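Below is a filled-in request sheet from our internal design queue. Each sheet records the structural input a requester submitted and the sequence that came back. We keep these sheets so that new team members can see what a complete request looks like end to end.

REQUESTER: design group, bay 2
PRIORITY: normal
MODE: inverse folding
CHAIN LENGTH: 449
BACKBONE (tokenized):
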């Protein structure tokens, strides 16, 4: 489309569906009271952890650490509730590094150019040059657990817990739970250690294709920023030592920069008169992907929000004019974005936005069976009027609520309404259950009366 709005003018969205999409876009916004509480709790954790690392003498390599705020919450595209936070802990590297690509440019072996006596030496393999991703991550786990032994959450009804380590995850994942036993998770935090490297590897040195969208000057500024490497190992069996100790390149800080400053004319969303619908489209797509994963958790296990985000960035780069994303065109723009993801799935090609040689839909990382299922699921959603975007029951408050002994917060009528909303969402997807649903609801109402 090359930034043209001609195709947009030919798209006709049924009025009812258009109204439905706009309504859902409003419902995805995080409530201010939940945002304030979550931010207070997470910021306190982050600030005190950083103080601990800087004063911790038994691991000096982490004393120079600083936080980067990345992820959907800080990009302001987090949906529904502020219950997931990504925090990158950048670790400056005091020596020159040699980066050897292990695949098409996402995963690397990282070596020191020459032996070093700096604290980084404690994380080298036996050859005294190769930097071990597993040792860095294990040390991060140890330090966080040590920190939590003395740290107290500002809200005394809550506590932080360290989750079990996952094989292919680069993060130390923590859960904020209520102090009572077996309580549900309120907030999840992914704490990712990341090596800060000033020069980009040759495989990605050209930078992202944003010249037409953000301009050649911005593209040069982006290429001048550092990149980061997170301790993530390649997937597969019978891995070599290099693959087991691999690092994955990350541009999440630049993704945040592009999403927050997204206008082609540099004035988009800077005033009420120039609002666009780009972020709303991404939030709606994230909601749709989340709904698909909830409904088909086994079949779409390999699908994640990053696939949607990548399709979104490609759409912004090719359809770059601000006039193509005006707020009035939200329904058509969102359907365009869903179609773009479907097109990537049909061709089996979704290039990483910064590493175009790496295909996120290649059979090695995204099975063909899963890809075919995704195509059918997206077709069904468009055919049925996007039923998975229909709102479920009202979201319960994120802040823990004190309940006096002997009382209950459940109301039969409210409970019935909640069941109604959940079942309505399911019925929108499977209309054949309508008769059973009507009979069940009738029986339930008689029982309450």
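RETURNED SEQUENCE:
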């Amino acid at each position: 489309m090359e930034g043209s709005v001609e195709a947009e003018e030919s798209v006709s969205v049924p009025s009812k569906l258009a109204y439905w999409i706009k309504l859902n876009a409003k419902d995805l916004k995080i409530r201010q009271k939940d945002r304030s509480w979550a931010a207070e709790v997470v910021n306190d954790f982050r600030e005190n952890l950083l103080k601990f690392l800087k004063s911790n003498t038994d691991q000096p390599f982490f004393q120079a650490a600083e936080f980067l705020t990345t992820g959907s919450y800080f990009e302001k595209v987090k949906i529904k509730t502020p219950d997931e936070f990504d925090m990158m802990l950048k670790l400056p590297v005091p020596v020159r590094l040699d980066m050897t690509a292990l695949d098409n440019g996402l995963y690397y072996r990282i070596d020191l150019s020459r032996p070093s006596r700096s604290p980084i030496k404690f994380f080298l393999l036996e050859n005294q040059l190769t930097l071990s991703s597993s040792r860095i991550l294990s040390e991060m786990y140890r330090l966080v657990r040590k920190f939590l032994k003395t740290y107290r959450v500002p809200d005394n009804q809550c506590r932080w817990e360290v989750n079990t380590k996952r094989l292919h995850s680069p993060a130390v994942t923590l859960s904020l739970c209520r102090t009572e036993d077996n309580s549900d998770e309120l907030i999840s935090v992914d704490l990712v250690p990341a090596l800060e490297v000033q020069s980009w590897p040759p495989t990605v040195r050209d930078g992202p294709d944003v010249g037409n969208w953000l301009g050649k000057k911005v593209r040069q500024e982006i290429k001048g920023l550092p990149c980061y490497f997170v301790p993530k190992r390649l997937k597969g069996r019978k891995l070599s030592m290099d693959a087991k100790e691999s690092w994955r390149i990350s541009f999440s800080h630049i993704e945040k920069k592009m999403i927050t400053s997204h206008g082609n004319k540099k004035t988009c969303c800077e005033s009420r008169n120039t609002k666009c619908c780009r972020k709303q489209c991404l939030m709606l797509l994230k909601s749709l992907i989340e709904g698909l994963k909830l409904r088909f958790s086994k079949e779409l296990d390999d699908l994640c929000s990053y696939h949607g985000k990548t399709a979104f960035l490609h759409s912004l780069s090719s359809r770059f004019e601000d006039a193509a994303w005006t707020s009035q065109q939200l329904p058509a723009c969102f359907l365009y974005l869903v179609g773009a993801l479907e097109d990537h799935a049909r061709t089996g090609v979704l290039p990483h936005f910064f590493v175009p040689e790496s295909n996120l839909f290649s059979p090695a990382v995204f099975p063909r069976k899963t890809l075919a299922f995704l195509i059918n699921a997206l077709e069904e959603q468009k055919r049925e009027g996007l039923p998975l975007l229909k709102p479920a029951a009202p979201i319960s408050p994120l802040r823990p609520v004190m309940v006096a002994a002997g009382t209950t917060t459940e109301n039969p009528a409210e409970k019935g309404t909640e069941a109604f909303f959940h079942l309505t969402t399911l019925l929108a997807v499977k209309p054949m259950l309508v008769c059973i649903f009507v009979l069940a609801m009738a029986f339930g109402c008689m029982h309450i009366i």
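SHEET NOTES:
- The radius of gyration is 24 Å.
- The first helix runs from residue 6 to 10.
FILED BY: M.R.
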